[in-house]
Amino acid sequence: MAPRSHADGSSSSWIASGLALGTLVVLTTLILLYLKGYQSSTSTVDQGRRALVAVTSEGSGQEYELHVHQDVDTEGQLRMVFYFTSLWGTSVSWAEEPRVDYEITFAGDPSLGGVTCGPNESLLQTASFEALSPGARASLLLDAAGGRRSALNYDGTAEDLPRAALTSDTYFQAFGTMWLSSGEARHTSRDEGADGYVWAEECRVPEEAVWHHAEGETPVTADRKTLIVPQVSWTSIGERTDHHRHLRSFLRVDRPEGVELVEAYPQPVTHDSHWTYETMGLWNNELGDVDNVGYTDLPVYILQQRELEEQRDVELMFVGAGMGVVATLAAYLASRVIGLLRSSLRRPTA
User: Domain-by-domain residue ranges, the chain?
Assistant: First the structure.
């Protein structure tokens, strides 16, 4: 057998180095692509344009409260139930006509055009800013100048929203007349009597108006998703509040299987299958003042899929192993290239 020449050995070494380099490039590319996708899917979104639900009402001839129940089911669907209760307890004088005319105005996101209300789940009417009642306009203007407490500007893109941003927007409204319930009443869905009197109204809000997640993900595929429920405000249909007293808000979020609450503010009460949060709204002025608006606070819930997170842990373990292989290949390649260069420099010339 003929002895192996120096050129053959050098050629084999260069081929081996080329294969190592190719493998290194492929592994590095795959790892970088995975890490880019991982960073996107695990990033936390805790701000975004929050929906504002401006309730306005007038009538009743007696002091009353507004109750708003927000219920998020395991599919992510938000139901909002609105009803009024008398502060005169059960001794209601029916001669005082204890009922109110109301408007519910949804603002903040085009997806709110998909809100449905009533027994037939009808889509809402649209309205321009100038077509809104004085009270609804006052609610929007107060929110636009609300700074950190703003719903429409919850993403913090500007210190205050300019009036032009409000006047150019489209709003979605439901109207009706509702009777006052007794102070002890509690409604969790629409309530209409056989006589046609409505005691509670119910609306359904599209998922995309309340759920936020990393770009390129969906609520199903995202490791983390953020629930930013609407802020509710309440004032008179006209310019001054008269019998409006308390705005009470109750939030319930049903826990889907395999999901955990990793962060929340304010902190809710934890139950075996859901979380709840109850609060009373604040008022910016006194009863009878012009543009006196009550408003709720701004809850944020960040939820995480436990199963997907465990899967990510396994994937990261393999990525770590792959990075180890990359480091080994890089060290091997560097040593081979240096050795080949030295060998070529020492090769005698003819």
Answer: 52-305
